[in-house]
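Hi W.,

Here's what went into the run:
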Amino acid sequence: MKSRLAVALAALFATSTALADEGMWTYDNFPSAAVEKKYGARIDGAWLDRVRQSTVRLAGCTASFVSGEGLILTNHHCIAACLAENSNKEKSLLEDGFVARDRDAEIKCPTQVADVLVAMDNVTTKVEAATRGLDDRAANDARKKTLTELEQGCEKTTGNKCQSVALYNGGQYFLYQYKRYTDIRLVFAPEAGIAAFGGDPDNFQFPRWCLDMGLLRAYENGKPVQPAQHLKMKFAGPKAGEFVLVSGHPGSTDRLLTVAQLQQLRESDLPPALLRSNELRGRYIQFAKTSDSARRIVEDPLTGLENGIKVRRKQLDALLDENMMAQKRREETELRARVRADKELAKMGDPWAEIEKANAIARNLDLELGYLEGGAGFNSRYFRYARTLLRGTAEREKANTERLREYTDAALPRIRQQLAAPTPIYPELEKLTLSFGFERMREWLGPDHPTVRQLLSKDSPDTLAESLVSKTKLNDPAVRLALWSGGAAAVAASDDPFVQLARSIDAEARALRKRYEDEVEAPISAAEEKIARARFKLYGTAVYPDATFTLRLNYGTVQGWVEKGRPVEPFTRLETAFARATGQPPFRIPDSWQRVRDSLDMQVPVNLSTTSDIVGGNSGSPLLDARGDVVGLMFDGNIHSISGAYWFDTAKNRAIAVHPAIMREALDKVYGAKDLLRELGGS
Amino acid sequence: MKSRLAVALAALFATSTALADEGMWTYDNFPSAAVEKKYGARIDGAWLDRVRQSTVRLAGCTASFVSGEGLILTNHHCIAACLAENSNKEKSLLEDGFVARDRDAEIKCPTQVADVLVAMDNVTTKVEAATRGLDDRAANDARKKTLTELEQGCEKTTGNKCQSVALYNGGQYFLYQYKRYTDIRLVFAPEAGIAAFGGDPDNFQFPRWCLDMGLLRAYENGKPVQPAQHLKMKFAGPKAGEFVLVSGHPGSTDRLLTVAQLQQLRESDLPPALLRSNELRGRYIQFAKTSDSARRIVEDPLTGLENGIKVRRKQLDALLDENMMAQKRREETELRARVRADKELAKMGDPWAEIEKANAIARNLDLELGYLEGGAGFNSRYFRYARTLLRGTAEREKANTERLREYTDAALPRIRQQLAAPTPIYPELEKLTLSFGFERMREWLGPDHPTVRQLLSKDSPDTLAESLVSKTKLNDPAVRLALWSGGAAAVAASDDPFVQLARSIDAEARALRKRYEDEVEAPISAAEEKIARARFKLYGTAVYPDATFTLRLNYGTVQGWVEKGRPVEPFTRLETAFARATGQPPFRIPDSWQRVRDSLDMQVPVNLSTTSDIVGGNSGSPLLDARGDVVGLMFDGNIHSISGAYWFDTAKNRAIAVHPAIMREALDKVYGAKDLLRELGGS
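Here's what came out:
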């Protein structure tokens, strides 16, 4: 039986793993043998250890150590928060860029942390033991409790940051240990005009011309960190067709979802989210036209929003693509038939039907949950502070394992860091997003929903937002920290309008969340675990797990593709960027470049495309050659890469990197950052 | 064979026509016998003639003559254009309302016309004769030419407005004759605050409290018209459960579309339209916050936009409803099987497959067509004027039957009226919508699309919009009329930037349209005609045609429904409106009502719901009792009514009317319009 299955398996995955360079592999399960056979490259244990220890995780992004003195290379768009936090209404580092002329000029990123993965422990058997024999709801609670205990024990023992990780939708559980750096400083950022040349219109497009790079430095005890390992830049970059790898943290994929789950995304989740985001986009854009300072303060949130819109829109297109859905149906039908035919597996019942049942409940809860517990209704940084203060101080009084997961002991230092950070908050923007949230809450929940009536009985969305924002004191880090230190009693005594607002809806919001966890999350987790076990029994680890913002390694080649019958070359050159510039944002090349235009090598490669299987979260990942040297800096995918959320389209899915040669050209000739270039080994 | 088919037919439509009061019936095919059997009401020829001659068609709406002196009753939202055209930045008739104290105070609606249907001729055989034996493309051209000729001949002979009408998706062709009134004046409008109490949040909701009424008067030769027939108001209104009818012009339904066409709507048409509209909504709303005058000038377009968003959003929901789609699939499978089983019909091949083929072409053309030929790209009144001038003067030089259909001789007087009308245009709003259109054109067609490159090679969307709007002279009716009179030569000599813009993209836009007509419209028309012929052969006219903004009559009863297990009563009362008011728009009751609050009868019914099968275009339709007296004024449907585009959901689809009692209360006590009330027979 086993060998027949293996044959069938080989056939089933022939197109995906054997032929295509597909897969976001964990470091403990990288297909080195297959790679060596196909490309002759030896990716051995030492190679993996070195690259793993050089790879850095940022909030939502990847980066890498590129010098022995803690220099970190990542994307410009990955340090946007740091740039925005060091900007104000009058001066935007996003727009203007930043070059630290020496170490003293490096400025702190108030909320940035940087993690390096130092150990991975498989704890699947411990989780299984804790949940065995329990019903869905109890198992869901027990699983969370066990993982919290494991994290807590690990942090105590090692002093590292410990995080539990579910792989294969619950088929495996791991405990990952990170060395965490919390003093991260800004070293270099080009202007947004060249970092994101082409802006939203060119986002997820290729050919492309973006210097989407930024440099940070990790400090410890006031001194630059000397990392255990770092990568070497290879400024010449790779050749067309060359074998390359990407080390990084792909954020999230949904390739193992059932067909019913994909349909839920297509019909219930993506469309309303897109409608909301598009209206907010319109509000941001129109707001930006009211003044220069309005334009500056809205730039960072607008960029993020537009990126999200493009992703979701193309995800929706992918889910409406009958070819893909037909393949998903075939695969699922096949798997379900195998499960039924397997005496042992057949006992697990029909997890696919269980998911559909839970989905039906989700469809009834989603709207209220999104508005009252999610971010759709109270769309405000003040509100998020208030909720964090209210819930954090309340949860802190409970046993660690009994808390909402975002308030476990492990999470508290980061919360404190964020409350303490003197990040600018713009009242005009708060009013805009709050009013928008209230107005849509009223539209989607209806004017007669109890919470809506409570909020808007005498107010309009605008007057309520105005009143809240004008009266709060939560823009002051000292006020936030006093409440945080004062604990539940201090928060209960607060008459800050946002604290009052968070309090007034807390019971209802928590109840919704609990219902969702019990009636949707728990049965879906249980069903997904069953499907994952079936997959393991039938296919083993010859497949890779969905992305979970944990460290992965993938491989591919430098390649273009064929678009509507026409080949797209894998490299772009600087001269085309100048030819394409209109003089108006987002197609305006900054003055710093215009000034030295004549001295620039117009043939220098700017961006390149590869077949690497990456996704959001991989931004800032080093593109590596077979030796493990940096031959590029991943920053985007082409438009077809967005369907990578659900499957890997070998023919068209391409990743996009900044070429190292343009980094050298820019640091040298445009920004005169000779010391940095020297530190990078570039001169 | 025939009798067996009749039996099958009865079974097939048992749930739709026999049990449900469903159907938008043409006046020549109203099921009077069935109605008499079920309700005992006699809807005979005299009844039909009287009501038909009293029913008025406005642009996009319905109305009715309600006095012997040309008084016309319709919705407030149907006269919004007239109110906006008589407003300016400082003063909004939409917001403030209007009461003409005497005939002299009645003010002209510059672009309004009012049509009354006076004759209907079946010309199906003429069209069939003209297209017989031709291929799809030639048949499409021949059909258009024949219909233009018929219209032209009819107008010459009768002096009436003649329009061809396709019923049953091309199963029947008619020539409709209208008596047209072009001097329409504004008599009465309440404030938007009470006409649309609850605004967008309450739109398509019930219970509801809106005085969505307005009064116009038709003039001829400077004197009020004495219409051939008019309706009598019955201010007491109908009883719960009472048999009622609606006469009006439902705009458009898609109940006869094939499953492939419905899927096309769901996947390719609705989502991008919704995304665009939602962003524009955000831009409008944010713009409205910049000043009082901005709020005033954006109110009318925003209301229309939000209405469209709600409609499309719920249409999308309906199309994602598997129950409905399953029924559509069953019906189609049944029909296709019957066609295959019928020797004669089987010869027509597979029109369903032909539609799918044409749809695939449409998916490739839609985007460019929408941006360059449709309204998505050049979203501006100035541009529309410019295109009308450019194309109208060019087309006028061709033979009538060779022109684009919107420029036939029959259309020219209306074009001239619109060019001549001194309607206010707000440059700020023009810039907003133009910039939005350019920005999205660049996003969706890409920065490298030739037209996008041509437009934005040195400009941003904002700078281009600014430059166009600041330089145009098309805001002056005299300038527009001079170009119109001057003809193609004058237009060719014009250096107005909008005329230049329209000219620069005209060849490309026309070519796209031609391709669309030949490769999409033509085969779909041909296929739809085949399906329509099959339906006729199998089912006869026991079914009703899709809505086409032509006169229809339907019947039903005054009824609420059951919402999530709870009954919704069919009448609302004034006291609940006051209880629900928040003091903030859109839940603010105007001062005029607050001032006389104590004198008002709080038990007076405000709105009511019926089972009438209506759709957009029926707005302003009289709700009639069995005698043909006005017992309500249709203005909306409940949220479930939006799925009426595709099917009639008997259990939940409800129409909403203004109750005549609140009209009397308002005219009498709030607006002191005693003369009007007397003219309406109300005192």
